[in-house]
Amino acid sequence: MDTMRDKPIKFSSSVFCLIILLSVYNSTAELRRLVQPPKSDSTLSFLVVGDWGRRGSYNQSQVARQMGKTGMNLNIDFVISTGDNFYDDGITSPYDCQFQDSFTNIYTAPSLQKPWYNVLGNHDYRGNVDAQISPILKDLDCRWVCLRSYVVNADIVDIFFIDTTPFVDKYFDEPKDHVYDWSGVLPRNKYLNNLLALERLEHPVTKSDGSLNILVVGDWGRQGCFNQSLVAHQMGIVGEQLDIDYVISVGDNFYDDGLKGDTDPAFEASFSHIYTHPSLQKQWYSVLGNHDYRGNVSAQLSHVLTQKDWRWFCRRSFVLCSGMVELFFVDTNPFVEQYFTDPEDHTYDWSNVLPRDRYISNLLHDLDLAMKKSRATWKFVVGHHGIKTAGEHGVTQELVDQLLPILEENKVDVYMNGHDHCLQHIGSDGGIQFLTSGGGSKAWRGVILPWDPKELKLYYDGQGFMSLHITHSQAKFIYYDISGNGAVEEKKQRMVVLGIQSLNWHVHGGFMEKKKKHLNGIVRATERDDSPPSSSSSSQRFEIDRDKARQALKQLDQQIESQADEKPRTFVKTSSDVVRTSSGGSSSMDPFMFEEPPEMSGSFLTTTAFLLLAFTLFYNILFFTVIKPSMDGPESVPADTIIAMSDSELVQFPLSSSPKKNF
C-alpha cells in the first residue's frame, strides 16, 4: 500500500513541474483563465490522476478510494486530470451514461467533492470532443471543468493546461482504425500556432486584385464628445468611398479609465452607438491603451462584448493575416516604466501581466518568432505607444531599447500607433516608417517637439484618422482631418497629394507612397487665409493659378542660374515659413520644418550636369501636371470624387527618393 501511495505522489510532482515549465513559455497566449483561491495560509494541495475512465474496472474504483483517503489527509483544494478521461473512445454526447458510470459514481469520497480540472487525451479525441467540453456536464456534476487549453490562476501559481493531442503526427497520418474528432482543430497548423508562437487570425481578402483598404483610428472612446461623432461620420464617408475591409484601433478605446466591466454602458455609448455608418459595419481589430489599463482589462478582452457587437475583437497581442500583409498587434503598455513606478493617482489593472519582466520577455520572444516565420510581402506592427514621435509623449525609450531592435532585424515596414495628440509620419528613407493616428477624439492639442526635418514627413496637431491602401507593389497612407479632407491621387505620376485641415490652420502635405523597388515622397504645404471661408468657397474645385505657375517657373530658372556659380549649400524651410493662426487671430510659430535635399558638390561640370538633369525632370513634371492642364482646362471628373480644397498658394518641395530596397 505504501508503494502504491508513493507512485501517485511522484507522478503528481512530475506533472506539476511540467505545467510550471509550460507557464514560462506560454504566458503570453490569450487562454481562458480560471481563478482557484488558495487556503488562508496561502498554501495549496491537490491530487493528479490520468487515464482513469473505466466504469470502475481495471482497479479504477480501488484507486478512487485511495485518492479519497489521501485527499482527506492533505485537505486538498482540487484535482487535476491529465486526460484519457473516458475509455476507449471518449463519450458520444453530454448525456452519455459513461460520464456518470466513470466519474460521478466512482469518485464519491467527500474529500474529492472539489473542482476537477481536466484536459483531453487521445482516447477522448476518438469520441465527441464538444461533449466533454460542454457546460452541460458541469450542470450534471458541478465538479467538472474541461477545456482544450486554459489557465488556472491559484494565486501563488499559474497552472497551464495544454491540449497536446493535436501535436502528434501519427494521429493524423496513421490513425489505424480509429476516427478522431478534429472539429475545432483544423487547420491544424493554425491551431498549433495560436496555442504556441501569438494568437493568429486570418481576415480573408475579398477584392479580386488582392488589395486591402483599411481605416486606422486611436484615442477615440469619448461617448461621442470631443468631436468623436464628427470623426466617426467622416470615417463612414471615407470607408464607403474606399470600400474598406476592416478597421484597426490603436488603443485608448474608452476614456478616461477603460471599462468597469463587460456590462459597462460605455461600450455601447462609445462604440456601438457612434460608429453606425454602414461602411463601418466591418471587423474592428483593437489593442489596449494606457487608459484602457486603468479599467477592467478582462472586460475589454471578454467575448461578452463580441456578443453585444459582433465587430469587436480585442486582445493584448495577436497576429492578423490578410493576404500579402501580416499585422502584428503588440501590447506596449507593460513596457512603460512610469506606469509602474510613478502611476500618479491612477490605478492600473496589471492582472495577468505580472511578473512584468517575464511577460515582456515572453512577448518579445513570441513576436520575434512569429516575424521570422512570416512570409508576408508586408509586415506592419500595431501598438499603442509611439516608438519615435514628435508629439507630446516624445520617444518611448523602453520601446527603442527592447522592441525596435526586433522590428529592425525582421525588416518591418511600418509601425502604427496612437497615444499622441496628433497625426504624424516619421521615417528615414528605406527604414521603418512610424505612423501616428492618435487624434480620434483628443480633448486637447499636444506639444510639438523639435525633430530632424529629414525624418519628420508630416505633423498635424489635430483630430482625425488614417487610411491604408495596400497592394503587392505599394502601400499608401492618407491622413484625414475632422472635416474629412482627403487625398487626390494622380495615378500617372504615382504621387499622392494629401489634405489636412484643422479649425484654425491648414496643411496640404504629401505623404508617402512606399514601393517595393522605389520610394517617392512629395510634400506640399499651403497657408490658409485668416478670413473665414464663405459657404460658396467650400464647394470650389481645386484649380491652378496660371500666373503663379509661370511665376514659379521663372523663379526656378533664376534659382538654377544663380546656383551654378555658388558653392553648395543647404536650404531649410523653417517654421517661419509655415504660419499657424490661433483662434484669437494671433499667429505663433510651430517647431517643425521641411528641409529640401542638399545640392550636389564636386566639380563645376558634374554640378552643372546634375542641375540640368534635375531641371529637365522638374520642368516635365510641372508642365504635364500644372501648365498643360491649366491651358487645356480641367478634365471631366466624376462628381463623387471631387475634393473641396482651398485656393490658397501652393509651395511645392522637390521630389525625394531613396535607394532601391530588395525584399
UniProtKB/TrEMBL annotation:
Molecular function in Gene Ontology: acid phosphatase activity; metal ion binding
Protein location: Secreted
Top EC class, one word: hydrolase
Cofactor: Fe cation; Zn(2+)
Pfam families for the chain: Metallophos (PF00149)
UniProt keyword Iron present: no
Enzyme Commission (EC) number: 3.1.3.2
Alphabetical list of InterPro entries matching this protein: Acid_PPase, Calcineurin-like_PHP, Metallo-depent_PP-like, Metallophosphoesterase_PAP
Compositional bias (Polar residues): 572-589
GO CC annotation terms, alphabetical: extracellular region
Positions of transmembrane segments: 604-627
Domain of life: Eukaryota
Catalytic activity: a phosphate monoester + H2O = an alcohol + phosphate
Occurrences of domain Calcineurin-like phosphoesterase (ranges): 45-183, 213-422
Sequence segments annotated as region (Disordered): 525-544, 560-591
Keyword Zinc on entry: yes
Quaternary state and interactors: Homodimer.
Family: Belongs to the metallophosphoesterase superfamily. Purple acid phosphatase family.
Listed name of the protein: acid phosphatase
Species of origin: Brassica campestris (Field mustard)
